[in-house]
Structures are given as C-alpha cells and as structure tokens.
Write a structure and sequence with these properties.
Elements lengths: L8 E5 L16 H18 L7 E11 L9 E10 L3 E12 L2 E16 L4 E2 L4 H11 L11
Antiparallel strand pairs: 1-3, 2-5, 3-4, 4-5, 5-6
Length: 149
C-alpha cells in the first residue's frame, strides 16, 4: 500500500480544462506533465538546481493510476528524491486529491533522471552542491540503500 510517509515536499497542481478527456477525467498522458510541474518546483525551491550549468534529462517514467482525477478536484503532488547515483537519480511522486478534508492517493510515479552536459553532449556527474542538497533534504546517507555511489 502506498503512503505519503517519507515525503517532505508537497506542491499544488492546477488542473486545466484542456487536461480533461472525453470521459470527464484527467487524460492519462497529462500525469507526466503534472510530474514535470512538481519536480520543476521541487528542483527550484529545494535543490536549487543551476540550469545554466548542467541540465537534466528524463531517462524513464513510470505511472500507476489508482483513482481518476476530475476537473474540479483539488490536487497536490508529493515529491522526493529516492535514489542518488553518480550521474543519475530517481524522483518519486504521489498525486493526491482533497476529499472531505482528507487526502486520497490517486496516482504514483517515478522518473529516472540523468544529469546532462549539453555543451559536451553527454551525461555528467551530479554537481556536488545539488547532490548534497538532495541527500540533506531527503535524509539520505551512504548507509541507505537509496544512496548509490
């Protein structure tokens, strides 16, 4: 069973009319956009990523749909870095909707990300400052299975 325990960051996600499909719920392809919004805000506010120095590309995305999201739902994304390697890391997400004062888990996801040097056209090491911000914020350490050197 999925739980928000262990997530330290939460942000709201706006639902646009264009996100809704003919069946009245958020189209399944839009969830990747919601994940992108959530991780971009997380990287900006928490990790303080320097986009002028090193880029990030998504290598793989996974989504598990649990409950539909509708146009008038109030939704939030929980985000965390769950694994850190040398040049790659994983970001996990939980999308929740507020219902009767409680949060219902609707969707979970994961993206595997790679740090990328566009000037040289290849992957590169995660900058030390950002790697340390991820480890500190998420309380990951070298003894944790999530931390891989």
């Amino acid at each position: 069973m999925c739980t928000i325990e262990g997530y330290h960051y939460k942000t709201s996600i706006p639902i646009r009319f264009a996100d809704i499909d003919a069946f009245g719920h958020v189209n399944n392809a839009i969830y990747l956009t919601y994940f992108e919004i959530a991780r971009s805000v997380y990287w900006k506010e928490i990790i303080k990523w320097d986009w002028n120095s090193i880029g990030i590309i998504v290598r793989k995305s996974e989504i598990e749909y649990l409950k539909p999201i509708l146009l008038n739902d109030e939704i939030y994304a929980y985000v965390r870095t769950s694994r850190i390697g040398n040049s790659s890391f994983d970001v996990e997400y939980i999308l929740v909707k507020k219902s009767l004062g409680k949060e219902e888990i609707c969707t979970t996801g994961l993206t595997s990300c790679v740090t990328y040097d566009y000037g040289h056209g290849k992957s590169t090491l995660i900058p030390v400052y950002q790697k340390n911000k991820m480890k500190e914020f998420e309380a990951l350490n070298a003894l944790s299975p999530e931390f891989q050197v």
